[in-house]
Amino acid sequence: MIVAGYALTPEAPLLVIAGPCVIESEAMSLAVAERLKDIGKRLPVSIIFKSSFDKANRSSSTSFRGPGIDEGLRILEKVRAETGLPVLTDIHTPEQARAAGDVVDVLQTPAFLARQTDLIEAAAATGKPVNIKKAQFMAPQDMAQVVAKAQRAAVQAGHADPAILLTERGSSFGYNTLVVDMRSLGIMAQTGCPVIFDATHSVQQPGALGDRSGGDRTQVPLLARAAVAAGVAGVFIETHPDPDAALSDGPNSWPLDRMEMLLSDLATLHALPLATR
Which helix (H) or strand (E) holds 270? Predict the structure, then answer.
């Protein structure tokens, strides 16, 4: 499978989807993307820049949501033009799928919306690769039906070989807590879709801080290494120059100045034969 110009095969470099949770400004988006591009020149990884133009599932109505679709897509288009990196963004409605599909290289559907048939079908119908996040409340085997929806919609729209990715981002465990069942990575891989591991949202503590979510970013490397050892095609890591000052998901974001070290470890592990990891 080819996604945003990158081959996703067992022999291919590790795919890395990385960037700030939300677009905070054009300057910051470009700075993070340039840093990721530089890292990609030194390491055997394939980087897709990600950021959201709107965070529609905020804990509080007063939380920062982003610049909106028009300004957000303009910034993402500029990031791609100036850095050469492919870009990914998430969408929340079928109408956004059509608009974003004209600009970005990969569309993403949020975990909370994994069962929203109209959204999944609209994203797949654009013909762009779609990264579908498994909902925190869904069993991994249930994603086979989500994949079937997406593939059927893509074929009906005239796209014979749709590129569908599945992302694990942790499962609800009681209140304000997520856990990762590594078995889910292998179960979702049985769909034939490349599996991505979201190392930063998996350490999120939803709603734990009252008006916003908490998290424990110290656990990101451990879970990322475990997922790469298990054979995922790629990792999803939200990163920020100053996570403690981030406008969204700061507690679980990985510091930008520590990204190269982490990705170096993951790339080294990914390069080993699967049986020896």
Answer: helix 259-271
Quote the tokens at residue 92.
């929340």
- Token pair of 65 as six digits: 């949501």
DSSP lists the bridge partners of residue 167 as 133, 196
CATH number of 2-271: 3.20.20.70
Please state which of the ranges 92-101, 131-140, 199-208, 255-264 shows the lowest mean pLDDT: 199-208
The three-state DSSP-derived secondary structure of 215-231 is ECHHHHHHHHHHHHHHC
Q: Please say whether the beta carbons of 265 and 47 come within 8 A.
A: no
Q: Rounded CA gap, 225 and 228, in Å?
A: 5
Residue 171 — φ and ψ, nearest 5°? -125, 145
Give 214's pLDDT tier (boundaries 50, 70, 90). Answer: confident
pTM tops 0.90? yes
CB within 8 Å of 41: residues ≥ 6 apart: none
Structure token digits, residue 20: 């700030």
Burial of 93 (0-12, 13-18, 19+ CB in 10 A): middle
